[in-house]
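Lecture 7, part B: from sequences to assemblies.

Below are the input chains for today's worked example.
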Amino acid sequence: MSPTQNVLFIMCDQLRFDYLSCAGHPTLRTPNIDALAARGVRFDRAYAQSPICGPSRMSTYTGRYMRSHGSTQNGVPLRVGEPTLGDHLAEIGVRNVLVGKTHMVADRAGLARLGIDPASEIGVRAAQCGFEPYERDDGLHPDGGYDPAPAYDAYLRAQGFEAENPWEYWANSAEGAQGETLNGWLLVHGDKPARVPAEHSETAYTTSRAIEFIEGAAAAGEPWCLHLSFIKPHWPYIAPAPYHALYGPADVKPAVRSDAERAETAHPIFRAFQQERYAQSFAREEVRQRVIPAYMGLIAQIDDELGRLMRFLDDKGLRDSTLIVFTADHGDYLGDHWLGEKQLFHDVSAKVPLIVVDPAPAADATRGTVSRDLVELIDLAPTFLDWFGAAPKPHVLEGHSLLPLTRASAAGPLRAHAVSEYDYAVDGVRRRLGTQVRDCRLVMITDGRFKLITAPGFRPILFDLDTDPGELTDLGADPAQAETIARLTAALLDWYRGAANRITVSDGWFSDGDAAAEVYDLLLDPGILIGYWDEAELDAEIHKRAAWRAAPQKG
Amino acid sequence: MSPTQNVLFIMCDQLRFDYLSCAGHPTLRTPNIDALAARGVRFDRAYAQSPICGPSRMSTYTGRYMRSHGSTQNGVPLRVGEPTLGDHLAEIGVRNVLVGKTHMVADRAGLARLGIDPASEIGVRAAQCGFEPYERDDGLHPDGGYDPAPAYDAYLRAQGFEAENPWEYWANSAEGAQGETLNGWLLVHGDKPARVPAEHSETAYTTSRAIEFIEGAAAAGEPWCLHLSFIKPHWPYIAPAPYHALYGPADVKPAVRSDAERAETAHPIFRAFQQERYAQSFAREEVRQRVIPAYMGLIAQIDDELGRLMRFLDDKGLRDSTLIVFTADHGDYLGDHWLGEKQLFHDVSAKVPLIVVDPAPAADATRGTVSRDLVELIDLAPTFLDWFGAAPKPHVLEGHSLLPLTRASAAGPLRAHAVSEYDYAVDGVRRRLGTQVRDCRLVMITDGRFKLITAPGFRPILFDLDTDPGELTDLGADPAQAETIARLTAALLDWYRGAANRITVSDGWFSDGDAAAEVYDLLLDPGILIGYWDEAELDAEIHKRAAWRAAPQKG
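Predicted structure of the full complex, as structure tokens:
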């Protein structure tokens, strides 16, 4: 590994795959993100391992499916000892640094059980999901809870933006005609500018902090993996000027939805999610027209800030040594399918934008291309390790490096199926349906054409993405689809069975001795003699071992 | 919990369910174990979670399936942080003490990654699978490897049994006519006595150490859970006098096997296991007749030692305060089905003896009965916690307390299916079949009548235990069984989906607030306002909360 190799891992929060101009949005302009796509590969079928922040991020940061890491919902601590990208990078001497959001909750009970001081270096890494928290900010600081003293509040105060709660007063509120505070959480205020000037907003601040980190690390000459993790365009949906007004109702794409989706024949879980407050709100056209322009403005601001960051990287001469990834943790229904938020598995929620800029000359042939390979966010950790030259760890990391795709050197598809999971135990949906907590586990599996969603106690949901790219027709109850459902169900069982649960030893632990084992009983070495009848039989085997040890292949 | 409550958890190694007189063995006499059965409940359908030492024990000691704890084979370290019975008992102030074998291998890499000193109290517990190792002895100390200075060797030396390797020379060798050492590992010597006198053999020594522990703990008045874990009747199959000669070839039950099991139509994995050395040996009648009497002698010795232990408990007045469990980690083919050892899922391998003596008066009605309930070794940890009065932890412990069965208070069956797993990556079978390491995962699921064994890349195996209790007819390729196979396969998917992977929070974490959540949006409390259109809508919800807080149900 060259000491000048780095990774810049950019993640947005709740950014839909189709809200980029390079991904076909009709009016949104994202020239800097488009430029990344032109320099790299844009993956058009990238799935989040869970369509919600915490579990999706825990999968991304561990390289493991939710079924394996067990942090099944926002707020559920990641179990202590679960190996993270940071653990793997630490082994090869690369710093894994955070600027922004992770949604990680420390497993304080587990740390206590193991006697680990949360303030120690190891304790911090375990508590921060493997990151060195150069700047940890999960982006929500309402009066009711969360971090009592976020660094961003201190920054705002230092800039003269005083308030009891600067985050709420300046960055997430607008101002009325009489100077009154207009609550930025409320969707009705989506068309107004946040009080904070754009250059001091969270997106700008986070970008500046990333630049500060890179400046220092570049000066020190150390390799780094920087996770620049924007809080936006996640709610509160309120953008600072001029971004609040860049787009208007005319830029709002028609909602993708049908009356059949609200009919009594629709799937009970789907219908129950439609009854959530956010779904009821986004089902209203008035809400969409007020909020979606703000959402677009927040994306445009991220794009501008990324332009600033890319110019900085170029100025520093880091372009050729830095692998850049741009993605999101999940999407946003924005009223499609009569839903808001995320949680379910339509592409607008579970599919994410993903651009990989691989500066290696071997990747020149793929620059500016769009890949239709089925890829997953758990592929990022193996990609980074591959970039730094580390050996793969398939017994721990359940994804695959994307570099064979950027370098057009893959022998075949990375995988036959992508999987995403969601646990609705936390949602009103559970109470509405009377489901037991343990039965709230939804699993989606797709082969790229069909998408099957399974739910204990309910019939499956099935979409045919080829004939129905809008996912408006649920084929889960169609007898003609029984074979497809059985095929994907069998694939799901294979997926469960293939879980990387044996994380303490590699596959090589079993197979490294195969050549010798073809010749003699390896248990002779520790003296464990199983099934030998008599001395003659044992001696014969000992002679085979001696012959093996004397043979040239030994050395 | 009364401070006088205790658990005596006795485990034999490789003891078949049917090698007890109370379980119907025609000539073997086990009066002391039979007496336990008469005092308690004998479970006739108890399954080990893996038919091999290490994984079976890791499941028993964690209360979790192999798919969850990930220690898939002997020698594979149990990942640090995996919660154990010892962790749960520590929370309620009960010592979890080991005398004998666990087969635990510490996750040294994991301990190092988390900065845990393996010599610290927490480090020892993590390294010893949750046990306080009063006496840890895994029972195999050949010259080739393992512990360089077992306590049992020191004991033998102190008794005057000197040798370079006392364990091997005295306890696991016989002596020839000329005084020469006859290797006790070799099956041909199964009919000879071990050099060591019975009262200084491993079984007697282990029992004495248990008595010493109980003596001290009883004097201190502290509650304890003692795992008395015998190494026998596991190989080396050599018993001290007089146990070597208690039984002879006439006591050897005919092998249960058929020619069809060796035919080319037999399942490839089954056939490949038949080619292992131990299987080839035990397929020979000469071997069975030499070894099985020794195996029976080792069991008879355990029975005698348990008689001594039970008299001690009675003398100490501990009978009424001690829950006693007698079981094994798996069985032994002993030539049945042309196999030796264990690994596969016929009842002689995967089913285990299980007796639970519950001294509570509530259990009087079930004393001396035989239960046909489907139970599993993962039920023991929840049973012990229940006995000590601890709350159940279904989000971590995947088994169920057996006390509702001993007390005849269960509302219904504990479970509809039992599951056992085996990873044959370590076996010659893998190389013989050319299977990839990752595809060596066998899973057995049974509903008590049918037993389905699934193997990636191969057709399933199916037995009907009602019509074919000897498991001689594999129905896995029978088209008439397609529906049964589909039904059990669906149950297997449910089993995978229901894994207790979310170990950091309980189900109550999701549902404790349900009554309030019926009334108002609980996210108001931390100030997270999702989907509200305007101030009026928000105010309405805030009023609902105020009403809830003022209502009498609040207090």
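Note for the exam: Residues 6-416 of chain B form a domain with the Alkaline Phosphatase, subunit A fold (CATH 3.40.720.10). Keep this in mind when comparing with the next example.
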